[in-house]
Specification:
Blueprint lengths: L16 E9 L6 H12 L9 H27 L6 H20 L4 E9 L4 H10 L4 E6 L6 H15 L7 E4 L7 H18 L4 E7 L3 H5 L4 H16 L4 E6 L12 H10 L4 E5 L8 H17 L4 E5 L6 H15 L6
Parallel strand pairs: 1-2, 1-3, 3-4, 5-6, 5-7, 7-8
Helix pairs in contact: 1-2, 2-10, 3-11, 6-8, 6-11, 9-10
Length: 340
């Protein structure tokens, strides 16, 4: 029996190539069982948790997957939409909008799909779909502006694992972050200015990024530095003087990169800041961490600390400016593919 799966259907009449927009993933439903399956896959990734395998297996299966799924399921229920997970809905819209944008500007057919590192649709399913259609060139854009080994590198690992089992391996191009790209900073700037135009400008702008264990950054991960670079470039572009950047989603007893978002919000409220605008530049689409943790949990924290107005600025999602930014990334990365 052949060792590798035959996954390619060549088509000589097309020069089509594919684009995969990669994101982290989401449970299929906000039920405890669905969340447990998702967390098991996510937290079993050695890029996410860098502990000895046997030790972590006992912690994960004996403690975390017993306690955390019910709590996380309740959080997902707070933000679940009628047609499903917010992250999934925005990911679908991003891919559809980007495909429409690219194919309206170029004669070469371009297939754009979204894929999730954990959950569905998997990289395996999406790559099989593309190569089954005769697509032999694929551009992967992980939608993580700031590089981390736990996100971007994990995406690269999984694509390699999938293709290691296939007979045909397409030509691959891979973006590994865009924290300081002009298009990205300008896209964030436009989003914030449009919010200010409609809602007014608060006393302080808070930029909250997802956190990482401090030891990961100490070991050489550039994530913290890239978040700082994004924050400073954006603040400079906006011309704001009163701003903060911080890190959320801390988990476990170990030290994570600081300052922590909850500490920053408490400090602002207790020292007399009455209104803040909060944006999460490291998230390309609204999800549990932005809609529940930030817009619900951190809102309550700031108001309880003396603040009066908490304005959450949504992620870039499927905004036209975001789709235009992604279109520019495709044009730069695909390059000669668009001229074939």
């Amino acid at each position: 029996m052949p060792r590798y799966r035959n996954n390619f259907a060549p088509k000589s009449d097309t020069k089509q190539f594919g684009v995969i927009l990669a994101n982290l993933g989401t449970p299929d439903s906000p039920s405890t069982s669905s969340v447990r399956r998702f967390l098991r896959q996510f937290l079993s990734d050695k890029r996410v948790v860098e502990l000895p395998k046997i030790l972590w297996w006992f912690i994960l299966n004996g403690i975390i997957l017993v306690i955390r799924p019910r709590r996380s399921a309740h959080a997902y229920q707070q933000i679940w939409q009628e047609d499903g997970s917010p992250l999934m809905n925005y990911s679908i819209r991003q891919a559809e909008a980007l495909e429409k944008s690219m194919n309206s500007d170029h004669a070469i057919p371009i297939a754009v799909r979204h894929a999730m590192r954990y959950g569905r649709p998997s990289f395996s399913d999406v790559l099989d779909e593309m190569t089954g259609q005769g697509i032999d060139r694929v551009l992967v854009i992980p939608l993580y502006p700031q590089y981390s080994s736990s996100t971007v590198a994990s995406t690269f690992d999984e694509i390699g694992n999938v293709l290691a089992k296939r007979r045909f391996v397409p030509e691959l191009r891979f973006m590994n972050g865009y924290a300081n790209h002009t298009e990205y900073i300008e896209c964030l700037e436009q989003t914030i200015r449009q919010h200010w135009s409609s809602n007014g400008q608060a006393e302080c702008l808070v930029m909250s990024f997802h956190g990482l264990p401090q030891e990961v950054c100490d070991a050489g991960d550039p994530y913290q530095q890239q978040c700082s670079e994004t924050a400073h470039l954006l603040a400079s572009k906006l011309g704001v003087q009163n701003w903060r950047f911080c890190f959320q989603s801390r988990f476990g007893p170990k030290a994570w990169i600081q300052p922590y978002t909850e500490s920053v919000l408490k400090d602002l409220g207790q020292k007399g800041t009455k209104s803040i605008d909060v944006i999460c530049p490291g998230f390309s689409a609204d999800c549990l961490e932005t809609l529940e943790e930030v817009n619900i949990g951190y809102r309550e924290l700031f108001l309880a600390s003396g603040g009066e107005t908490f304005n959450y600025i949504p992620c870039l999602n499927d905004r036209p400016e975001h789709i235009q930014m992604l279109s520019q990334f495709v044009r730069k990365s695909a390059g000669d593919w668009l001229q074939s």
